[in-house]
Amino acid sequence: MKLFNKGGFRKRLAVCALSFALLFSSGAMLVQAEGGGSSYNYSFWGNTVVAPAAYDATALLTGDDLGVGSLKEPNDLHVTADQHIYVLDSGNNRILVLDSNYALLDVIDQFDNAGQQDGFSNPQGIFVTEDKQLYVADTGNKRVVQLDQQLQLVKIVDSPQSELLQANFDFQPVRVVVDKASRIYVMSTGVFDGFMEFSANGDFTTFIGANRVYVDPIEYLWKTLSTKEQRSQMVQFTPTEFTNLDINDEGFIYATNGDQWGDNIKKLNAQGTDILRREGYFEPEGDIRYRPVDGPSRLIDIDVADSEIYSVLDAKRGRIFTYNGDSHLMYVFGGLGNQLGKFTAPTAIERVGDNMLVLDKALGEITVFETTAYGRTLNEAVRSYYRGDEEAAFQRYMETINMNANLEFAYSGIGKALLRQGNYGEAIKYFKESYDNKGYSKAFLLHRKAILRSYFPTIMTSVVVLLLILIVWRKVRKWKGGKKIVTIE
């Protein structure tokens, strides 16, 4: 059953058309999300709505605070399961290791390589496995270095050889992740074929997850009409490069790219197929409202938490966007500026428990964000539903909408929890409130079946009784010698 009638559809279409006209009208009209506060969300209609803060900035860490001198153009962060924090201080060619209280544990700036002291050169990416195997994208040295828990060299991955690579291929790794089978996935500068996959032994095997090529229709037309010599001088159509990646406990790679025309957030399986669910009101792409002169968000980092929650960092406006597994926008925080909680050039994000760390490359600082009551409640609502605890999900979502009635997808969350509990009638109401057509149709169908099922015994009993009465009546008529009943077929 459809939730919206034709009149409602025409109304929505008219609103969208009006919004489109206002967005691109002369005068470069300011959009609310562009100049508004750092805590907001988007309604079903695409309007910017006020939202409570999900995170508050509580601390600022510098190299001087840690007693190691200023950080110089740090590029990456990684947090292990035991909440040890690895900070890649790229400009100083070192790695800082902190505990969960942000106290310095170690400084890694060299290692033994066949009896010689070796070090890093402008490293750009870092990853640590569950058994504390340390992988460093040592960009300046064009290699990936693996150190064990005792910081002893395990292997160096460099100069990959394959028929898939050109003879003059220049290996410049900038990001690295590793799955539980010890397969290494590397993002390398200048590679448009996806991520480079290496075996546990360090041998290059294949590319995975290449972005689709976007073809400008006008340029394609010109190429079609041009001569071979003219085409050779034109810009070639190439896929967009990825900008970052992360991997979850199940081995799925979450990645961001700079594609303004396609999907700039992906969830890749082992075959490189994008399996990200996009069931939110809008595509998960950061800001959906912005000034045309500024353009869309430029996502440069992604962090995957538990329960399929993921966050992305927008370098253009310094904001962090967090989505649930269905790609509904949960909350937004951060921004560019000089006060606590704002950044100059944010470059990486990581979670320590429910806290969020944001690394500022320009200032050499780490901002610590802690969840508010609203953020904790919403996080727990999403987690409860993910693990199948419908009662807890229902309670947490109810608390969430009491704090933020504008969060429309929370009504859908309540509807889904009620749906799992078998309360289809109530689920219909909440799906309608959240404009969830799919959920509404499913709840309506199940509600109708439940009603029919509840009345089925009464209906069948009535039918049987009527049949018995008819049979008895016919026998009585026949016994009395009454007129035979003729059935016309």
Report Rg: 29 Å
The major beta sheet can be summarized as:
4 strands, antiparallel
Largest sheet, spatial ordering of strands: 3-27-26-25
Helical content class? 25-40%
Briefly note the structural class of the backbone.
alpha+beta
CATH topology of the domain at 48-371: Neuraminidase
Q: What is the number of helices?
A: 10
Signal peptide: 1-33
Protein name: Gluconolactonase
Transmembrane segments: 455-473
TPR repeats: 408-441
Task: Give structural notes.
- With 489 residues, the chain is an alpha+beta fold.
- The protein contains ten helices and 27 strands.
- Strand 4 (76-79) and strand 5 (85-89) form a beta hairpin.
- Helix 7 runs antiparallel to helix 8 and helix 9 packs antiparallel against helix 10 (437-479).
- The protein is elongated.
- NHL repeats lie at residues 69-101, 110-150.
- Keywords: Membrane, Repeat, Signal, TPR repeat, Transmembrane, Transmembrane helix.
- InterPro entries: 6-blade_b-propeller_TolB-like, NHL_repeat, TPR-like_helical_dom_sf, TPR_rpt, TRIM-NHL_E3_ligases.
- Residues 1-33 form the signal peptide.
Blueprint (SSEs and pairs):
Elements: H1 6-23, H2 32-35, E1 40-42, E2 48-50, E3 55-62, H3 63-66, E4 76-79, E5 85-89, E6 94-98, E7 104-108, E8 110-113, E9 116-119, E10 125-128, E11 134-138, E12 143-147, E13 153-158, E14 173-178, E15 184-188, E16 195-198, E17 204-208, H4 217-225, H5 228-232, E18 242-247, E19 253-257, E20 265-268, E21 299-304, E22 310-314, E23 319-323, E24 329-334, E25 346-352, E26 355-360, E27 365-371, H6 373-386, H7 390-403, H8 408-421, H9 424-433, H10 437-479
Antiparallel strand pairs: 1-2, 3-27, 4-5, 5-6, 6-7, 8-9, 10-11, 11-12, 12-13, 14-15, 15-16, 16-17, 18-19, 19-20, 21-22, 22-23, 23-24, 25-26, 26-27
Helix pairs in contact: 6-7, 7-8, 8-9, 9-10
